[in-house]
Amino acid sequence: MDLNYLYYRQQIETSMAEAAHSDAARKVHGELAEEYEKRINEAVGRSQPKANATMALAITAREVGESES
User: Fold this and answer.
1) d(Cα 28, Cα 13) in Å, to the nearest integer?
2) For 1-69, where are the alpha helices, taking DSSP H only?
3) CA dihedral (31, 24, 11, 65) positive or negative
């Protein structure tokens, strides 16, 4: 799996959890963000540190900039 995709999806789910209007939606999106975070950590050989949401935004912004050129 592409690491950039995992960072992107983790950030999307985090954003959706923060914007959710119900506790149920917030919980589900939060859990999905955590699962993506686990997959990121497995992919890069870490078990403890959390994925860096800022890095996910930077990667996503770079991808958008590359696709526009």
Assistant:
1) 9
2) 3-19, 23-43, 53-68
3) positive
